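Per your request, structure below.
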């Protein structure tokens, strides 16, 4: 079976698809991953064949992300995301059509609208993947991922869905027509769904399968990319070798004042009497001098670092949250946008961390209280450990591969 995998976004959006690609290759299938050209080296490092396509540079991505995340207006955030996405996806369509013609099945992330248009244009079946939550009417949550009850959720989906369609169809349909197809109605929602198979790459222990999804939706468990070849620098290895440290990092988020946030973090850490690993991320946290009990690091694989940590404070990205769940450590979320608030609330609902905090309201007092709870609440620690043990028993990528094989044979 020839599988084309297409994803859009940052490192956290890439990793689950690298994990799937590795597992498909191990099962004897031919795999090609199409993502931003900047990720060619990442794909090569884990042995997944890569096909680049016209896309934004990392500098463009960071600048647009900074503008989007820095806004408090969610409608403006959505507008900026769609404008940025539509430009990239329209340019990618010709290349994606070439790749889709040579594939037996296309597996795509929800925002890879160009991949869906290309697959439909050339007649190749496509499988949708949801590694945050399905952008689809549900009984258990509304479109902003808040549960208003069954009736309230139905009303919210109708109202918000209509507004999103009016705001996005005109911008996204040029992606569809670039593939030679007539315009679609409700492009954003339609492209995130496959009539064949929809894989929810989330643990059922962290998010229940919604009864409205139907038989084409399958919750597989998380898709983790293990990188056992990682060898840490000697100073980092020595730093984490003793008492498990606190880890702090906001990943690819950069829509905030890094200097101000660093000062809040250092104020909260003062007197904590605990080692701390501070991940600088795209925002450049820790640019000023840090005390001796703080280790300032760049990229460190979460699978390696979280397994050695006591707890973590992060931005609430789906991949980062999943890694902390798997490690079985308590976690607290300082959210900026998108699904991050949702995952912060899920962590609190599961008893694995405190309620989330917006980065606009971040202060040293809240941070210190979060550290004290994460390190001192035995019940929270026990719940996080139990959740981690359950997730480590799952085989999300294996279930996904079997599901793709089943529908490919059927078609």
């Amino acid at each position: 079976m020839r599988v084309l995998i297409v994803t859009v976004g940052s490192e956290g959006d890439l990793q689950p698809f690298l994990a799937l690609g590795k597992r498909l290759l191990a099962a004897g299938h031919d795999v090609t991953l199409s993502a931003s050209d900047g990720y060619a080296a990442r794909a090569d490092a884990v042995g997944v064949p890569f096909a680049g396509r016209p896309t934004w540079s990392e500098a463009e991505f960071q600048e647009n992300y900074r503008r989007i995340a820095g806004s408090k207006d969610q409608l403006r955030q959505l507008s900026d995301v769609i404008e940025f996405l539509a430009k990239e996806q329209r340019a990618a369509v010709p290349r994606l059509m070439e790749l889709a013609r040579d594939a037996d099945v296309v597996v795509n992330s929800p925002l890879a609208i160009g991949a869906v248009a290309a697959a439909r244009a050339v007649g190749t079946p496509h499988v949708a993947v949801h590694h945050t939550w399905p952008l689809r009417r549900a009984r258990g949550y509304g479109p902003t991922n808040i549960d208003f009850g069954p009736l309230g959720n139905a009303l919210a989906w109708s109202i918000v869905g209509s507004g999103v369609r009016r705001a996005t169809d005109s911008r996204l349909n040029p992606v569809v027509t670039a593939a030679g197809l007539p315009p679609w109605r409700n492009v954003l929602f339609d492209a995130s769904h496959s009539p064949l198979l929809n894989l929810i790459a989330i643990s059922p222990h962290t998010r229940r399968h919604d009864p409205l999804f139907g038989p084409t939706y399958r919750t597989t468990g998380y898709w983790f990319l293990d990188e056992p070849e990682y060898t840490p620098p000697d100073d980092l290895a020595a730093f984490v070798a003793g008492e498990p440290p606190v880890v702090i990092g906001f990943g690819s988020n950069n829509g905030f004042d890094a200097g101000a946030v660093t000062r809040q973090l250092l104020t909260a850490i003062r007197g904590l009497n605990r080692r701390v690993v501070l991940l600088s991320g795209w925002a450049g946290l820790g640019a000023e001098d840090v005390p001796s009990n703080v280790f300032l690091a760049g990229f460190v694989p979460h699978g390696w670092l979280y397994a050695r940590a006591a707890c973590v404070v992060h931005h609430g990205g789906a991949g980062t949250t999943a890694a902390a769940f798997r490690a079985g450590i308590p976690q607290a979320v300082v959210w900026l946008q998108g699904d991050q608030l949702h995952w912060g609330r899920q962590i609190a609902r599961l008893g694995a961390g405190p309620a989330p905090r917006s980065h606009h309201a971040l202060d040293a007092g809240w941070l210190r209280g979060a550290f004290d709870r994460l390190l001192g609440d035995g019940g929270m620690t026990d719940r996080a450990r139990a959740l981690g043990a359950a997730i480590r028993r799952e085989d999300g990528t294996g279930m996904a591969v079997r599901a793709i094989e089943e529908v490919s044979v059927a078609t």
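The mean pLDDT is 88.

Regards,
D.
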